[in-house]
Amino acid sequence: MVPSQAPSTPLQLSGGGSLRGTVGVPGDKSISHRALLFGAIAEGETRIQGLLPAEDPLSTAACLRAMGVEVSPIQAGGEVTVQGVGLDGFQEPAEVLDCGNSGTTMRLMLGLLAGRTDRHFVLSGDASLRGRPMRRVGAPLAQMGAVIHGRKQGNFAPLAVLGQPLRGTTIRTPVASAQVKSAILLAGLTASGPTTVIEPAQSRDHSERMLRAFGARLDVGGPGLTEVTLTPGSSLRGQTVVVPGDISSAAFWLVAAAITPGAELTVRNVGLNPSRTGILAVLEQMGAQITVLNPREVAGEPVGDLQVSHGPLQAFEIGGELIPRLVDEIPVLAVAACCAEGVSRIRDAGELRVKETDRLAVMARQLGAMGARIEEWEDGLTITGVTALRGAAVDSETDHRVAMSLAVASLVAEGTTSLDRPEAAAVSYPGFWDDLQRLRV
Length: 441
Ligand code: S3P
What we know:
The chain is of the alpha/beta class and about 450 residues long. It folds into two domains: about 10-25 and about 245-440, Enolpyruvate transferase domain (UDP-n-acetylglucosamine1-carboxyvinyl-transferase, Chain); about 30-240, UDP-n-acetylglucosamine1-carboxyvinyl-transferase, Chain, CATH 3.65.10. It has 14 helices and 23 strands. The chain has helices spanning about 30-40, 55-65, 105-115, 125-130, 135-145, 150-155, 180-190, 205-215, 245-260, 280-285, 330-340, 360-370, 400-410, 430-440; strands at about 10-15, 20-25, 45-50, 70, 80-85, 95-100, 120-125, 145-150, 155-160, 170, 195-200, 215-220, 225-230, 240, 265-270, 290-300, 300-310, 315-320, 340-345, 375, 380-385, 395, 415-420. It has a four-stranded mixed sheet with strand order 2-15-17-16. Strands 4-5-3-14 form a four-stranded mixed sheet, with helices on one face. A four-stranded mixed sheet has the order 6-7-9-8. The longest helix is centred in the N-terminal third of the chain and has 13 residues, at about 30-40.
Protein backbone atom coordinates (compact mmCIF):
# COMPACT_ATOMS: atom_id res chain seq x y z
CA MET A 1 0.00 0.00 0.00
CA VAL A 2 1.22 3.53 -0.66
CA PRO A 3 2.06 4.90 2.77
CA SER A 4 0.32 8.16 1.88
CA GLN A 5 -1.13 8.61 5.37
CA ALA A 6 2.27 9.35 6.88
CA PRO A 7 3.48 12.72 5.59
CA SER A 8 6.80 12.25 3.79
CA THR A 9 9.58 14.69 3.00
CA PRO A 10 9.78 15.84 -0.62
CA LEU A 11 12.83 14.49 -2.42
CA GLN A 12 15.24 17.06 -3.88
CA LEU A 13 16.38 16.01 -7.36
CA SER A 14 19.05 18.12 -9.04
CA GLY A 15 19.10 18.37 -12.82
CA GLY A 16 22.20 18.01 -15.00
CA GLY A 17 24.94 15.39 -15.13
CA SER A 18 24.58 12.12 -16.94
CA LEU A 19 23.92 8.39 -16.46
CA ARG A 20 26.37 5.50 -16.85
CA GLY A 21 26.46 1.84 -15.96
CA THR A 22 24.43 -1.33 -15.70
CA VAL A 23 21.21 -1.90 -13.84
CA GLY A 24 19.13 -5.01 -13.21
CA VAL A 25 15.50 -4.05 -12.76
CA PRO A 26 13.33 -5.94 -10.25
CA GLY A 27 11.01 -8.77 -11.26
CA ASP A 28 8.01 -8.25 -13.52
CA LYS A 29 5.00 -7.20 -11.47
CA SER A 30 2.38 -8.92 -13.66
CA ILE A 31 4.29 -12.21 -13.71
CA SER A 32 5.00 -12.01 -9.96
CA HIS A 33 1.28 -11.72 -9.08
CA ARG A 34 0.44 -14.61 -11.39
CA ALA A 35 3.19 -16.86 -10.03
CA LEU A 36 1.84 -16.40 -6.48
CA LEU A 37 -1.82 -16.82 -7.46
CA PHE A 38 -1.36 -19.80 -9.78
CA GLY A 39 1.02 -21.44 -7.31
CA ALA A 40 -1.70 -21.10 -4.66
CA ILE A 41 -4.36 -22.92 -6.73
CA ALA A 42 -1.99 -25.62 -8.02
CA GLU A 43 -1.33 -29.01 -6.45
CA GLY A 44 2.06 -29.20 -4.76
CA GLU A 45 4.84 -26.68 -4.37
CA THR A 46 5.66 -23.74 -6.64
CA ARG A 47 9.12 -22.19 -6.44
CA ILE A 48 9.48 -18.61 -7.66
CA GLN A 49 12.84 -17.06 -8.49
CA GLY A 50 13.16 -13.33 -9.06
CA LEU A 51 9.74 -12.47 -7.58
CA LEU A 52 9.26 -8.70 -7.29
CA PRO A 53 9.72 -7.86 -3.58
CA ALA A 54 7.50 -4.77 -3.74
CA GLU A 55 4.27 -3.63 -2.10
CA ASP A 56 1.88 -4.91 -4.79
CA PRO A 57 3.01 -8.58 -4.81
CA LEU A 58 3.22 -8.41 -0.99
CA SER A 59 -0.50 -7.54 -1.04
CA THR A 60 -1.22 -10.63 -3.15
CA ALA A 61 0.84 -12.83 -0.81
CA ALA A 62 -0.91 -11.41 2.28
CA CYS A 63 -4.37 -12.14 0.79
CA LEU A 64 -3.33 -15.71 -0.03
CA ARG A 65 -1.98 -16.28 3.48
CA ALA A 66 -5.28 -14.99 4.90
CA MET A 67 -7.00 -17.85 3.02
CA GLY A 68 -4.69 -20.54 4.41
CA VAL A 69 -2.01 -20.64 1.71
CA GLU A 70 1.57 -21.03 2.91
CA VAL A 71 3.79 -18.48 1.15
CA SER A 72 7.40 -18.23 2.35
CA PRO A 73 8.78 -14.78 3.28
CA ILE A 74 9.39 -12.50 0.29
CA GLN A 75 12.87 -11.01 0.33
CA ALA A 76 14.98 -9.43 -2.39
CA GLY A 77 17.09 -12.09 -4.12
CA GLY A 78 15.51 -15.03 -2.28
CA GLU A 79 13.43 -17.86 -3.71
CA VAL A 80 9.78 -17.82 -2.68
CA THR A 81 7.81 -21.03 -2.23
CA VAL A 82 4.04 -21.41 -2.34
CA GLN A 83 2.33 -24.54 -1.06
CA GLY A 84 -0.63 -24.99 -3.40
CA VAL A 85 -4.05 -25.77 -1.93
CA GLY A 86 -5.66 -26.82 -5.23
CA LEU A 87 -8.37 -25.20 -7.33
CA ASP A 88 -10.98 -25.15 -4.56
CA GLY A 89 -8.78 -25.08 -1.46
CA PHE A 90 -9.05 -21.48 -0.23
CA GLN A 91 -10.37 -21.16 3.32
CA GLU A 92 -12.91 -18.45 4.03
CA PRO A 93 -10.86 -15.56 5.47
CA ALA A 94 -11.79 -14.20 8.88
CA GLU A 95 -10.97 -10.62 7.88
CA VAL A 96 -11.29 -8.33 4.86
CA LEU A 97 -8.71 -9.17 2.18
CA ASP A 98 -6.54 -6.06 1.84
CA CYS A 99 -5.37 -5.62 -1.77
CA GLY A 100 -3.50 -2.41 -0.89
CA ASN A 101 -2.83 -0.33 -4.01
CA SER A 102 -2.97 -3.30 -6.36
CA GLY A 103 -5.62 -3.53 -9.10
CA THR A 104 -4.14 -6.79 -10.37
CA THR A 105 -4.54 -8.40 -6.91
CA MET A 106 -8.18 -7.35 -6.61
CA ARG A 107 -9.27 -8.15 -10.15
CA LEU A 108 -7.52 -11.52 -10.53
CA MET A 109 -8.65 -12.55 -7.08
CA LEU A 110 -12.30 -11.75 -7.93
CA GLY A 111 -11.99 -14.32 -10.71
CA LEU A 112 -10.42 -16.88 -8.41
CA LEU A 113 -12.95 -16.44 -5.60
CA ALA A 114 -16.20 -16.16 -7.57
CA GLY A 115 -16.55 -19.95 -7.87
CA ARG A 116 -15.63 -20.90 -4.29
CA THR A 117 -19.06 -22.13 -3.19
CA ASP A 118 -20.28 -21.75 0.41
CA ARG A 119 -17.60 -19.15 1.15
CA HIS A 120 -17.83 -15.41 1.59
CA PHE A 121 -14.95 -13.03 0.85
CA VAL A 122 -14.65 -9.26 1.24
CA LEU A 123 -11.98 -7.41 -0.71
CA SER A 124 -10.83 -3.85 -0.18
CA GLY A 125 -7.76 -1.68 -0.60
CA ASP A 126 -6.34 1.80 -0.24
CA ALA A 127 -8.14 4.99 -1.27
CA SER A 128 -6.82 4.78 -4.86
CA LEU A 129 -7.96 1.18 -5.32
CA ARG A 130 -11.35 1.84 -3.73
CA GLY A 131 -11.90 4.45 -6.47
CA ARG A 132 -11.08 2.14 -9.40
CA PRO A 133 -13.85 0.51 -11.48
CA MET A 134 -14.48 -3.15 -10.71
CA ARG A 135 -17.71 -3.72 -12.66
CA ARG A 136 -15.55 -4.43 -15.72
CA VAL A 137 -14.68 -7.69 -13.89
CA GLY A 138 -17.89 -8.13 -11.90
CA ALA A 139 -20.19 -7.89 -14.96
CA PRO A 140 -18.57 -10.69 -17.02
CA LEU A 141 -18.23 -12.84 -13.91
CA ALA A 142 -21.96 -12.29 -13.25
CA GLN A 143 -22.62 -13.71 -16.75
CA MET A 144 -20.90 -16.86 -15.49
CA GLY A 145 -23.15 -16.94 -12.41
CA ALA A 146 -21.01 -15.02 -9.91
CA VAL A 147 -22.56 -12.98 -7.10
CA ILE A 148 -20.48 -9.91 -6.22
CA HIS A 149 -21.75 -6.88 -4.30
CA GLY A 150 -20.04 -3.52 -4.01
CA ARG A 151 -20.57 0.21 -3.68
CA LYS A 152 -22.30 2.05 -6.55
CA GLN A 153 -24.03 -0.98 -8.11
CA GLY A 154 -21.06 -3.24 -7.53
CA ASN A 155 -18.51 -1.00 -9.20
CA PHE A 156 -16.32 -0.10 -6.23
CA ALA A 157 -14.64 -1.85 -3.31
CA PRO A 158 -15.21 -2.92 -0.65
CA LEU A 159 -16.58 -5.86 -2.62
CA ALA A 160 -18.28 -8.94 -1.21
CA VAL A 161 -18.01 -12.21 -3.14
CA LEU A 162 -20.53 -14.97 -2.35
CA GLY A 163 -19.03 -18.05 -3.99
CA GLN A 164 -21.34 -19.74 -6.55
CA PRO A 165 -21.14 -22.59 -9.04
CA LEU A 166 -20.10 -21.00 -12.36
CA ARG A 167 -20.89 -21.84 -15.98
CA GLY A 168 -18.58 -21.41 -18.95
CA THR A 169 -19.63 -18.90 -21.58
CA THR A 170 -18.30 -16.56 -24.30
CA ILE A 171 -17.56 -13.02 -23.20
CA ARG A 172 -16.66 -10.04 -25.39
CA THR A 173 -14.86 -7.43 -23.33
CA PRO A 174 -15.24 -3.75 -24.33
CA VAL A 175 -11.65 -2.83 -23.32
CA ALA A 176 -8.39 -4.69 -23.89
CA SER A 177 -7.44 -5.46 -20.30
CA ALA A 178 -5.28 -8.35 -19.13
CA GLN A 179 -6.73 -7.99 -15.65
CA VAL A 180 -10.27 -8.49 -16.93
CA LYS A 181 -9.25 -11.29 -19.30
CA SER A 182 -7.30 -13.08 -16.56
CA ALA A 183 -10.13 -12.80 -14.02
CA ILE A 184 -12.54 -14.44 -16.48
CA LEU A 185 -10.07 -17.22 -17.37
CA LEU A 186 -9.36 -17.93 -13.69
CA ALA A 187 -13.10 -18.16 -12.98
CA GLY A 188 -13.31 -20.51 -15.97
CA LEU A 189 -10.95 -23.01 -14.33
CA THR A 190 -13.82 -24.42 -12.26
CA ALA A 191 -16.76 -23.51 -14.53
CA SER A 192 -19.12 -26.17 -15.90
CA GLY A 193 -17.88 -25.77 -19.51
CA PRO A 194 -15.36 -23.89 -21.67
CA THR A 195 -14.95 -20.12 -21.26
CA THR A 196 -13.97 -17.87 -24.18
CA VAL A 197 -12.77 -14.26 -23.84
CA ILE A 198 -12.77 -12.05 -26.94
CA GLU A 199 -10.89 -8.75 -26.59
CA PRO A 200 -10.92 -5.71 -28.93
CA ALA A 201 -7.08 -5.90 -29.06
CA GLN A 202 -4.58 -8.28 -27.51
CA SER A 203 -3.62 -7.44 -23.93
CA ARG A 204 -0.57 -8.92 -22.19
CA ASP A 205 -0.66 -12.72 -22.32
CA HIS A 206 1.28 -13.72 -19.18
CA SER A 207 -1.74 -15.55 -17.75
CA GLU A 208 -2.14 -17.67 -20.87
CA ARG A 209 1.55 -18.61 -20.95
CA MET A 210 1.76 -19.42 -17.26
CA LEU A 211 -1.59 -21.23 -16.96
CA ARG A 212 -0.47 -23.50 -19.80
CA ALA A 213 2.85 -24.16 -18.10
CA PHE A 214 0.92 -25.16 -14.95
CA GLY A 215 -1.16 -27.64 -16.99
CA ALA A 216 -4.35 -25.78 -17.95
CA ARG A 217 -5.91 -26.29 -21.37
CA LEU A 218 -5.96 -23.02 -23.34
CA ASP A 219 -6.50 -22.28 -27.01
CA VAL A 220 -5.53 -18.89 -28.39
CA GLY A 221 -6.67 -17.66 -31.81
CA GLY A 222 -8.75 -15.03 -33.59
CA PRO A 223 -7.47 -11.94 -35.38
CA GLY A 224 -4.38 -10.61 -33.57
CA LEU A 225 -4.64 -13.38 -30.92
CA THR A 226 -7.64 -11.72 -29.31
CA GLU A 227 -9.65 -14.88 -28.55
CA VAL A 228 -8.72 -17.19 -25.70
CA THR A 229 -10.63 -20.31 -24.70
CA LEU A 230 -10.03 -22.12 -21.45
CA THR A 231 -11.39 -25.65 -21.12
CA PRO A 232 -11.73 -26.72 -17.47
CA GLY A 233 -10.98 -30.19 -16.20
CA SER A 234 -7.20 -30.26 -15.78
CA SER A 235 -5.72 -29.76 -12.36
CA LEU A 236 -2.74 -27.41 -12.12
CA ARG A 237 0.66 -28.68 -10.99
CA GLY A 238 3.16 -26.58 -9.03
CA GLN A 239 6.06 -25.30 -11.15
CA THR A 240 9.33 -23.46 -10.95
CA VAL A 241 8.77 -19.93 -12.23
CA VAL A 242 11.66 -17.64 -13.15
CA VAL A 243 10.44 -14.04 -13.19
CA PRO A 244 12.24 -11.77 -15.68
CA GLY A 245 12.95 -8.08 -15.00
CA ASP A 246 9.97 -5.79 -15.56
CA ILE A 247 10.06 -3.91 -18.88
CA SER A 248 7.74 -1.35 -17.29
CA SER A 249 10.47 -0.60 -14.73
CA ALA A 250 13.21 -0.77 -17.38
CA ALA A 251 11.24 1.89 -19.31
CA PHE A 252 12.35 4.58 -16.83
CA TRP A 253 16.02 3.85 -17.57
CA LEU A 254 15.43 3.54 -21.32
CA VAL A 255 13.86 6.98 -21.48
CA ALA A 256 16.30 8.46 -18.94
CA ALA A 257 19.28 7.37 -21.04
CA ALA A 258 17.65 8.36 -24.33
CA ILE A 259 17.03 11.97 -23.17
CA THR A 260 20.09 12.68 -20.97
CA PRO A 261 23.13 14.05 -22.82
CA GLY A 262 26.10 11.68 -22.69
CA ALA A 263 24.12 8.85 -21.11
CA GLU A 264 24.84 5.19 -21.76
CA LEU A 265 23.08 2.42 -19.81
CA THR A 266 22.65 -1.33 -19.98
CA VAL A 267 19.50 -2.77 -18.45
CA ARG A 268 19.97 -6.47 -17.75
CA ASN A 269 17.47 -9.33 -17.82
CA VAL A 270 14.40 -7.52 -19.18
CA GLY A 271 11.24 -9.44 -20.10
CA LEU A 272 10.56 -8.93 -23.82
CA ASN A 273 7.15 -10.54 -24.21
CA PRO A 274 5.77 -9.06 -27.50
CA SER A 275 2.55 -8.04 -25.73
CA ARG A 276 4.69 -5.69 -23.59
CA THR A 277 7.34 -4.30 -25.95
CA GLY A 278 5.39 -1.35 -27.39
CA ILE A 279 7.81 0.99 -25.58
CA LEU A 280 10.71 -0.35 -27.67
CA ALA A 281 8.72 0.16 -30.89
CA VAL A 282 8.01 3.80 -29.97
CA LEU A 283 11.56 4.59 -28.85
CA GLU A 284 12.77 3.10 -32.12
CA GLN A 285 10.26 5.27 -34.03
CA MET A 286 11.73 8.26 -32.16
CA GLY A 287 15.24 7.38 -33.33
CA ALA A 288 16.55 6.27 -29.90
CA GLN A 289 19.73 4.21 -29.84
CA ILE A 290 18.60 0.87 -28.35
CA THR A 291 20.17 -2.55 -28.90
CA VAL A 292 18.82 -5.88 -27.65
CA LEU A 293 21.70 -8.07 -26.48
CA ASN A 294 21.73 -11.74 -25.62
CA PRO A 295 18.07 -12.56 -26.49
CA ARG A 296 16.97 -15.77 -24.77
CA GLU A 297 13.89 -17.55 -23.43
CA VAL A 298 13.50 -18.09 -19.69
CA ALA A 299 10.60 -20.17 -18.32
CA GLY A 300 8.35 -19.48 -21.30
CA GLU A 301 9.03 -15.73 -21.56
CA PRO A 302 11.47 -13.99 -23.96
CA VAL A 303 14.23 -12.06 -22.16
CA GLY A 304 17.17 -9.87 -23.21
CA ASP A 305 19.55 -7.13 -22.09
CA LEU A 306 18.96 -3.63 -23.43
CA GLN A 307 21.71 -1.17 -24.24
CA VAL A 308 20.61 2.42 -24.68
CA SER A 309 22.40 5.69 -25.25
CA HIS A 310 21.52 9.34 -25.70
CA GLY A 311 20.77 10.79 -29.14
CA PRO A 312 18.44 13.19 -30.90
CA LEU A 313 14.78 12.18 -30.71
CA GLN A 314 11.81 12.78 -33.02
CA ALA A 315 8.19 13.17 -31.95
CA PHE A 316 5.89 10.11 -32.06
CA GLU A 317 2.23 9.31 -32.61
CA ILE A 318 0.63 6.35 -30.88
CA GLY A 319 -2.87 4.92 -30.60
CA GLY A 320 -5.04 1.90 -31.41
CA GLU A 321 -3.77 -1.60 -30.78
CA LEU A 322 -0.34 -0.40 -29.71
CA ILE A 323 -1.75 1.15 -26.51
CA PRO A 324 -2.27 -2.11 -24.55
CA ARG A 325 1.33 -3.03 -25.40
CA LEU A 326 2.69 0.04 -23.58
CA VAL A 327 -0.18 1.14 -21.35
CA ASP A 328 1.98 1.52 -18.22
CA GLU A 329 4.79 3.32 -20.07
CA ILE A 330 2.73 6.31 -21.24
CA PRO A 331 3.67 8.54 -18.27
CA VAL A 332 7.38 8.17 -19.01
CA LEU A 333 6.76 8.46 -22.76
CA ALA A 334 5.18 11.84 -22.02
CA VAL A 335 8.54 12.84 -20.52
CA ALA A 336 10.36 11.57 -23.63
CA ALA A 337 7.99 13.64 -25.80
CA CYS A 338 9.13 16.83 -24.04
CA CYS A 339 12.67 16.07 -25.26
CA ALA A 340 11.71 15.12 -28.84
CA GLU A 341 11.62 17.45 -31.81
CA GLY A 342 8.04 18.09 -32.97
CA VAL A 343 4.51 17.36 -31.78
CA SER A 344 3.89 13.96 -30.14
CA ARG A 345 0.36 12.62 -29.98
CA ILE A 346 -0.98 9.92 -27.63
CA ARG A 347 -4.53 8.76 -28.50
CA ASP A 348 -6.93 5.95 -27.51
CA ALA A 349 -5.42 5.98 -24.03
CA GLY A 350 -8.56 6.70 -21.98
CA GLU A 351 -7.69 3.67 -19.82
CA LEU A 352 -5.02 5.80 -18.16
CA ARG A 353 -7.79 7.67 -16.38
CA VAL A 354 -8.62 4.57 -14.30
CA LYS A 355 -5.10 3.50 -13.29
CA GLU A 356 -3.60 4.13 -9.81
CA THR A 357 -4.37 7.81 -10.57
CA ASP A 358 -5.88 9.56 -13.59
CA ARG A 359 -2.50 9.47 -15.31
CA LEU A 360 -3.48 11.77 -18.19
CA ALA A 361 -4.57 14.52 -15.81
CA VAL A 362 -1.72 13.96 -13.35
CA MET A 363 1.04 13.95 -15.99
CA ALA A 364 -0.44 17.03 -17.70
CA ARG A 365 -0.55 18.81 -14.32
CA GLN A 366 2.86 17.76 -13.02
CA LEU A 367 4.86 18.03 -16.26
CA GLY A 368 3.01 21.29 -16.94
CA ALA A 369 4.44 22.61 -13.65
CA MET A 370 7.92 21.88 -15.04
CA GLY A 371 7.19 23.95 -18.15
CA ALA A 372 6.10 21.18 -20.55
CA ARG A 373 3.89 22.21 -23.45
CA ILE A 374 1.28 19.54 -22.83
CA GLU A 375 -2.38 19.46 -23.76
CA GLU A 376 -4.80 16.97 -22.24
CA TRP A 377 -7.59 15.34 -24.25
CA GLU A 378 -10.32 12.94 -23.23
CA ASP A 379 -8.27 9.96 -24.45
CA GLY A 380 -4.71 11.23 -24.63
CA LEU A 381 -2.10 13.95 -24.62
CA THR A 382 -0.44 16.23 -27.17
CA ILE A 383 3.08 17.30 -26.26
CA THR A 384 5.28 19.76 -28.13
CA GLY A 385 9.04 19.44 -27.90
CA VAL A 386 11.81 20.19 -27.52
CA THR A 387 11.01 22.05 -24.30
CA ALA A 388 13.58 23.11 -21.72
CA LEU A 389 12.02 21.72 -18.55
CA ARG A 390 12.67 23.56 -15.29
CA GLY A 391 12.88 22.21 -11.77
CA ALA A 392 9.64 22.79 -9.85
CA ALA A 393 7.65 21.53 -6.88
CA VAL A 394 5.87 18.42 -8.19
CA ASP A 395 3.90 15.56 -6.61
CA SER A 396 3.59 11.85 -7.42
CA GLU A 397 -0.04 12.14 -6.24
CA THR A 398 0.70 8.65 -4.70
CA ASP A 399 1.24 6.99 -8.12
CA HIS A 400 4.42 4.90 -8.44
CA ARG A 401 4.83 5.40 -12.18
CA VAL A 402 4.24 9.14 -11.89
CA ALA A 403 6.91 9.36 -9.16
CA MET A 404 9.52 7.64 -11.35
CA SER A 405 8.52 9.50 -14.53
CA LEU A 406 8.94 12.85 -12.78
CA ALA A 407 12.35 11.71 -11.50
CA VAL A 408 13.34 11.02 -15.13
CA ALA A 409 12.10 14.48 -16.13
CA SER A 410 14.14 16.05 -13.32
CA LEU A 411 17.37 14.74 -14.90
CA VAL A 412 16.99 17.11 -17.86
CA ALA A 413 15.37 19.98 -15.95
CA GLU A 414 17.21 23.19 -15.18
CA GLY A 415 17.73 23.44 -11.41
CA THR A 416 16.20 21.35 -8.64
CA THR A 417 12.94 19.42 -8.71
CA SER A 418 11.22 18.90 -5.38
CA LEU A 419 9.18 15.68 -5.61
CA ASP A 420 6.48 15.14 -3.03
CA ARG A 421 5.42 11.59 -2.04
CA PRO A 422 8.39 9.86 -3.73
CA GLU A 423 7.81 6.72 -1.61
CA ALA A 424 5.04 5.67 -4.03
CA ALA A 425 7.82 4.15 -6.20
CA ALA A 426 7.98 1.21 -3.76
CA VAL A 427 4.71 -0.16 -5.15
CA SER A 428 6.64 -1.62 -8.11
CA TYR A 429 10.32 -0.64 -7.74
CA PRO A 430 11.56 -0.42 -4.13
CA GLY A 431 15.22 0.19 -5.08
CA PHE A 432 14.53 2.88 -7.66
CA TRP A 433 16.02 5.82 -5.72
CA ASP A 434 19.19 3.85 -4.87
CA ASP A 435 19.61 2.79 -8.51
CA LEU A 436 19.13 6.39 -9.65
CA GLN A 437 21.81 7.62 -7.28
CA ARG A 438 24.23 4.89 -8.33
CA LEU A 439 23.80 5.45 -12.08
CA ARG A 440 24.30 9.23 -12.00
CA VAL A 441 27.69 10.60 -13.05
C1 S3P B 1 -1.78 -5.66 -15.61
C2 S3P B 1 -2.53 -5.22 -16.68
C3 S3P B 1 -2.65 -3.80 -17.04
C4 S3P B 1 -1.57 -2.95 -16.39
C5 S3P B 1 -1.35 -3.29 -14.94
C6 S3P B 1 -0.99 -4.75 -14.79
C7 S3P B 1 -1.76 -7.11 -15.33
O1 S3P B 1 -3.90 -3.34 -16.58
O2 S3P B 1 -1.89 -1.57 -16.51
O3 S3P B 1 -0.30 -2.49 -14.42
O4 S3P B 1 -0.89 -7.57 -14.57
O5 S3P B 1 -2.62 -7.83 -15.86
P1 S3P B 1 -5.24 -3.55 -17.46
O6 S3P B 1 -5.39 -4.98 -17.65
O7 S3P B 1 -6.36 -3.01 -16.64
O8 S3P B 1 -5.02 -2.77 -18.71
